[in-house]
Specification:
Largest sheet: 8 strands, antiparallel, barrel
Order of helices and strands: HEEEEEEEE
Helix content: 10-25%
Shape: globular
Structural class: mainly beta
Bound molecules: biotin
Distance between the termini: 40 Å
Number of helices: 1
Strand content: 35-45%
Radius of gyration: 20 Å
Length: about 150
């Protein structure tokens, strides 16, 4: 009886600690790995790895109208630190190269990644040539196929 009481007290204590933490410190708000995120232009960010230092590995498929290098997966590197996130894509591949790099910086809040980005074209000579914008990414929910047949 006493054991049940003290374990439920411990559960209540853990719950109250997590609910009082700021959102960046709450493990339930961390970016899932692997995960896929789509923005308002239909582009997709795939996060395949986040190592113990917060280094991100993944890929990006651009589908934004008016830009080159569409419908091809380009490697993504970046950093996650609590709710803060940055990632980059070099738009270079055997299929198509766009002579440019995009760097996104933003944060995870309430299940979406809000970012500002800079698109720099190789050969630029003035910061006025840097194209800037914002992207908001929502997580794509993926179905996990679990076999109903038991493995022996
Ligand atoms: C280029 O045209 O030089 C390369 C493709 C750039 C696509 C940009 S990156 C920022 C914005 N968000 C997207 O999903 N696509 C555009």
């Amino acid at each position: 009886m006493r054991l049940i009481k003290s374990s439920s007290l411990l559960c209540a204590l853990i719950l109250s600690v997590f609910s009082s933490l700021p959102s960046y410190a709450n493990p339930t708000t961390a970016i899932q790995v692997p995960s896929a995120w789509t923005n308002q232009s239909g582009s997709t960010l795939y996060i395949s790895t986040i190592d113990s230092n917060g280094q991100i590995g993944g890929s990006y498929i651009n589908r934004a109208a008016g830009y080159g290098c569409q419908n091809i997966a380009y490697p993504v590197t970046g950093w996650a630190y609590g709710s803060a996130i940055t990632f980059n894509t070099l738009w270079k591949s055997v299929a198509e190269s766009c002579n440019s790099i995009t760097a996104w910086a933003g944060f995870l809040y309430k299940g979406q990644i809000s970012t500002l980005w800079n698109l720099t074209i190789n050969g630029s000579s003035s910061t006025s040539q840097i194209i800037q914008g914002s992207d908001i990414f929502q997580q794509v929910q993926t179905l996990v196929n679990k076999s109903l047949i038991s493995k022996k």
